[in-house]
TrEMBL record:
InterPro entries recorded: ATP-synt_VA_C, ATPase_a/bsu_AS, ATPase_F1/V1/A1_a/bsu_N, ATPase_F1/V1/A1_a/bsu_nucl-bd, P-loop_NTPase, V-ATPase_su_B/beta
Stated name of the protein: V-type ATP synthase beta chain
Keywords carried by this UniProt record: ATP synthesis, Hydrogen ion transport, Ion transport, Transport
Domain of life of the organism encoding this protein: Bacteria
Transmembrane domains' residue ranges: none
Alphabetical list of Pfam families matching this protein: ATP-synt_ab, ATP-synt_ab_N, ATP-synt_VA_C
Organism: Vagococcus lutrae LBD1
Lineage, broadest ranks: Bacteria, Bacillati, Bacillota, Bacilli, Lactobacillales
Family in the record: Belongs to the ATPase alpha/beta chains family.
Domain ATP synthase A/B type C-terminal: 355-452
Domain ATPase F1/V1/A1 complex alpha/beta subunit N-terminal: 10-74
Length: 460
């Protein structure tokens, strides 16, 4: 039931208090009619007795306490969804932004979604190929997983996000695949980069884009990932599609949470962020998954920039507790010209063992992954030792591993942002690099697998 009130009592920043209300619910959609007849939208943040605290999406500046009217719509914020969303660009409030025809919705869905029943969840175990070797081979992404990318200011996470969006696909499956891309609080230049890249490469044909600019209100920043995840859930669980959701930058989302919390005069938590930020992030990340009996799935790659590159900062720290691993970008690799600058040793996918092996990728996947990790780690240590003592102080084996580490970074990790490698090409490249190491040093691969892939002269 729609109810209108002219009892706006106070306006503070993006917040507005409406007095003498009844029957108003948390998260309810509000329309604010200004003096000149224009309409702004808002959302109920808090209800206390007969007082409702409303957050205005476009900001409350210019709201006249006597001449404006608040209309409570009786339902939460809804997103109009349809399969025709694929190939379209929307803003952070779900309105078309590409100049195309208005969307004819099949239904309207609550953007807050509904929690997946834990008993109905299906375990993630299907390999998703991103075309990026350091992810596919070493930190495998599986369908239904949430695997964030931890970056820092100045690192090329936007380019990596665009690369994954245009290259990702589910192997050994004829089911439909779609990408839902949510850009949160980005600059106009970054927005143009994503739109142009998606259009030029054809990625937009199987993608849904939600763009929220840095100049847009903070409330829209909070709604953008919810819009994207609602669209993803619709395509996955009602249309049976495999959906990959890429969200960048979650740090801007958390900054918006902090801004709104400060406006509400809440007691701050760590570094000024609200104490409920962990719960709030979990409501986003836990919308990834698979449901028994349904073909579709939602897989997430949230991207966040660590303030000052600090992995102990509350945003990456809390994200790490909720998600199943993390891909970490390293500044020293980027400065050395390695792109994408993925730090293989500190990155982790906790579900990688579930999506690899014969029938999913290849039988030598796990063994070569473990051996590459071991060889690269030893090579890095050898290079650090050589920097102190000189290369001549190293044993012959350590010198070989040091050269291996250099080739590993330049040839394996450094594939650029346009190269799309299949998992077979990545595995073969791994064997080629391992062939430079003496066989008796390859202790993490069984003899029969070595016999199959190596000879005394190296790679077959």
């Amino acid at each position: 039931m729609i109810k209108s009130y002219r009892s706006i009592g106070e306006v503070v920043g993006p917040l507005m208090a409406v007095e003498n209300v009844s029957g108003v619910k948390y998260d309810e959609l509000v329309e604010i009619e200004m003096q000149d007849g224009t309409i702004r939208r808002g959302q109920v943040l808090e209800v206390s007795d007969d007082r409702a605290l409303v957050q205005v999406f476009e900001g409350a500046a210019g709201v006249n306490l006597e001449g404006s009217k608040a209309r409570f719509m009786g339902h939460p914020f809804m997103l109009s969804v349809s399969e025709d969303m694929i190939g379209r660009v929307f803003d952070g409030l779900g309105e078309p932004k590409d100049g195309g025809e208005p969307l004819i919705p099949e239904k309207r869905l609550d953007i807050n979604g509904e929690p997946i029943n834990p008993m109905a969840r299906d375990y993630p175990d299907e390999f998703i190929q991103t075309g990026v070797s350091a992810i596919d081979h070493l930190n495998t992404l599986v369908r239904g997983q949430k695997l964030p990318i931890f970056s820092a200011a100045g690192l090329p996470h936007q380019e990596l996000a665009a690369q994954i969006a245009r290259q990702a696909k589910v192997l050994n499956s004829d089911e439909n695949f779609a990408v839902v891309f949510a850009a949160i609080g980005i600059t106009f230049e970054e927005a143009n980069f994503f739109i142009d890249d998606f259009r030029e490469t054809g990625a937009l044909e199987h993608s849904v884009m939600f763009l929220n600019l840095a100049s847009d209100p903070a409330m829209e920043r909070i709604s953008t990932p919810k819009m994207a995840l609602t669209a993803a859930e619709y395509l996955a669980f009602e249309k049976g599609m495999h959906v990959l959701v890429i969200m960048t930058d979650l740090t801007n989302y958390c900054e918006a949470l902090r801004e709104i919390s400060a406006a509400r005069r809440e007691v701050p938590g760590r570094r000024g962020y609200p104490g409920y930020m962990y719960t709030n992030l979990a409501t986003l990340y836990e919308r990834a998954g698979r449901i028994r009996g349904k073909k579709g799935s939602v897989t997430q790659i949230p991207i966040l920039t660590m303030p000052e590159g600090d992995i102990t900062h509350p945003i990456p720290d809390l994200t790490g507790y909720i998600t199943e691993g993390q891909i970490i970008l390293d500044r020293s690799l980027q400065e050395a010209g390695v792109n994408p600058p993925i730090d293989a040793l500190t990155s982790l996918s906790r579900l990688k063992d579930k999506g690899t092996g014969e029938g999913k990728t290849r039988d030598d996947h796990a063994a070569t992954m473990n051996q590459l990790y071991a060889a690269y780690s030893r090579g890095k240590e050898a290079k650090e030792l050589a920097a102190i003592l000189g290369e001549t102080a190293l044993s012959k084996a350590d010198q070989i591993h040091a050269r291996f580490a250099e080739r590993f970074e330049k040839e394996y990790i450094n594939q650029g942002f346009t190269t799309n490698r299949t998992i077979e090409e990545t595995l073969d490249l791994g064997w080629e690099l391992l062939s430079m190491i003496p066989r008796d040093e390859l202790k993490r691969i069984k003899d029969d697998m070595l016999d199959k892939h190596l000879t005394k002269e190296g790679l077959i």
